[in-house]
Amino acid sequence: MAKGTVRYWAAAKAAAGVAEEPYEAETLAQALDVARERHSGEFARVLLRCSFLIDGDPVGTRGHETVRLAEGGTVEVLPPFAGG
């Protein structure tokens, strides 16, 4: 299991109630499952609209179960942003 940091932005941060927290997971899917267990209510609905960066690289349409996480890595959770 890799350990790293999940950072939440905008609506994801508001729904989680924290700006960041640690992860201990092998894949993005596992890290998000743990996050859903930690945060109830609106959080799961917000995640459905989010995009993700892993160590600065976009996940895009890849299946979250196929996205491996690195030791000391960072997952950025980005909800849609308005404006420009």
Could you explain how this protein is built, in words?
- Strands 2-1-5-3-4 form a 5-stranded mixed sheet.
- The chain has one domain: Ubiquitin-like (UB roll) (Roll).
- It is an alpha+beta fold and 84 residues long.
- 29% of the residues lie in helices and 29% in strands.
- This is Molybdopterin synthase sulfur carrier subunit.
- It comes from Streptomyces dioscori.
- InterPro entries: Beta-grasp_dom_sf, Mopterin_synth/thiamin_S_b, ThiS/MoaD-like.
Topology record:
Layout: E1 2-8, H1 10-16, E2 20-25, H2 28-38, H3 43-48, E3 51-54, E4 57-58, E5 74-78
Parallel strand pairs: 1-5
Antiparallel strand pairs: 1-2, 3-4, 3-5
Describe this protein with a few key phrases.
84 residues, alpha+beta, Ubiquitin-like (UB roll)
- Largest sheet data: 5 strands, mixed
Based on DSSP secondary structure assignment, what is the total number of beta strands? 5
Helices and strands, in N-to-C order? Answer: EHEHHEEE
Write down the CATH class.
Answer: Alpha Beta
Biggest sheet: strands side by side, in what order? 2-1-5-3-4
Principal-axis shape: globular
CATH fold node name = Ubiquitin-like (UB roll)
SSE class: alpha+beta
Per DSSP, the total helix count is 3
Report the end-to-end length measured between terminal Cα atoms.
37 Å
